[in-house]
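Have a think about this chain, tokens included, and walk me through the fold.
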Amino acid sequence: MKKIELSRTISVLAGIVMSSTVTDGNVAWAQGEEFSTGVVEANDLTFHYLEAGEGPIVLALHGFPDHARSYRHQLTALAESGYRVIAPYMRGYTPTEIPEGGYFGLSALAEDVVALTEALSDEPVVLMGHDWGAAAAHAAAAAAPERFSKLITMAVPYGTFRQSLVSNPEQQRRSWYMFFFQLPVADAAVRMNDFAFIERLWQEWSPGWDLPAEELASIKATFARPGVLTAALRYYRDAFNPPVSATQSAGPEYPQIKVPTLYIHGRDDGCIGVEVAVGMERFFDNGLQKVIVDGAGHFVHQERPDEVNRAILRFLE
């Protein structure tokens, strides 16, 4: 993969409480008030983030259909263990900026991640990602390994998922929504009946576990913001049908990852089957630890936070 070109003109405004930076009630509800917030300019976008703690930085990237509060359990636990945890709202998820006519493919997400690390720290950081955040973290670590001391990813394996869409009938069935999102009708369908579609995905992906009602309402508030749903669907649309203007790598589809990595997957994941993670070890040059969490689904870090946090902290020792 070509080295990512990144803007070096970056400024940081940190430690600003949410009530002073966000006045819209929906955004306030979506963020909550128990964490500090900050704003950073990176890769020509304005990113908002939640944060907790002081110490070495852990940059935590959320996925779909989710937002920065996905890491509420890790923000608290890792902060108590001496880390500064920063959970940005990803590109297109307000209050982070939605790029006008922007690209939402993996190369753009990786550029965002590396630019964020350069804005926030002169030293390599710990990078953590779940779902789309995991995909972005893998891409960033492959492109700029010098920026990351360790890598923690969850629920989306590296190097094996695309093939599963070709050869694994069960995964083809689980991934039906990706193909549905290519249709123009998806925007209206997902929004229908107060985002019942999103609620159904959470139920199917984490069977037997209920997201707390206040957290579901918070996620719906995020997706109700102008432009967020369309931006979130663009992640899938640009993955399957990248625009002609998108930069395409001339290197291997899955470059080797040279950063020590911990991978966590729920055994009952209804979005990506645990079997899809088999064989990903060959893509990691500097070690891969895998933890399969029994009794957990796709949102493993929220369903089993104590077990996941223990695994993370052991890995970071």
